[in-house]
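Re: the pair you flagged

First of the two:
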Amino acid sequence: DEQSDIFSIIRAGDLLVHHPYDSFTATVQRFIAEAAHDPNVLTIKITLYRTGGDSKFVDSPIISSLIAAAENGKQVVALVELKARFDEENNIIWARKLEKVGVHVVYGLVGLKTHTKVSLVVRRESQQLRRYVHIGTGNYHASTARLYEDVGIFTADEEIAADVADVFNYVTG
């Protein structure tokens, strides 16, 4: 629904997406892009394994949105996996770009490969904070979302959001 903001759609009920049958651009990319520009969003936290684009020539839409979010004064945290096979160089370059604009970049956990695909958005709504979450099996990468079958869920469920917040607190603490 292009008429509604992504947050009102998620508030209405959990949204299950199945890529490539559901548009990655209209769901996942939209979630991060709207969060980056929404004045009520305070925080975006995300894990990055593969993000798309060629870090030297073509911007990743997800990275561009995270940069915009940081430039818009939001707290942005990105866990960047450096052991993403064939994308190590891109991920280092993306991480440096993110750090330059003030994103808190975490380089995974020693001895572990972080292959999770999860994002958390904290938004101010009517004198309270509400957390929105995306959890998926696919990377934050538009091209691979058109090639592989992946599923994802968007939710504002408080128990799930609390668990995701705990994950980010653990990896950034």
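Second of the two:
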Amino acid sequence: MKEVLNDQKREALRKLNQESNHMTKECIKTALLSLMSSERFDTITVTSIINRAGVSRGGFYRNYKSKENVLQEICDELFHYIWEFLSKHDFYENPKEWYVDLFQSIAEHSDAYQLLVGARAPKTVVLHFDEERLLKKLQKNEGIFDKYRALAIIKAVSEILLVWFKSGMKETPEEMAEMMLKIFNINS
């Protein structure tokens, strides 16, 4: 009976530690985003993040190696939302819808991207795409031509998204999708 109670206590502590780590990470991410609303990313320090988050230095380093790791996690979460949109359509069956969803997902998260771009966060992180995942999605087959075509699309789309975003997203996602089809000479 005593062993069962000890196991239950250990499990309760484990869950409590998990929740505590989750809360610490959320506080750290929120603090970084808050600081980025008024400071450039390169001027923000780990000390300023932990002071804003109200966590210990040990709590920070238990969860992250650096402020860049925090930023990467934030951007990975944004990519996850984009991926949900992109997974709805097969690129080659309906490229227009795929592009519309891509630009729509960026538009829906424009506040977050504005914050990242405004704080001059590294471009390679802001529009970070999981290239391996996208390559699989955009390659028709395993041939070298398809691999390079998919890679060109990923790189070009990343740059085009950034320019579209920085210029105020004047074109609708549908207009951007039409342009992408023309740029890459794809018939929808």
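The chain has a mean pLDDT of 85.

-B.
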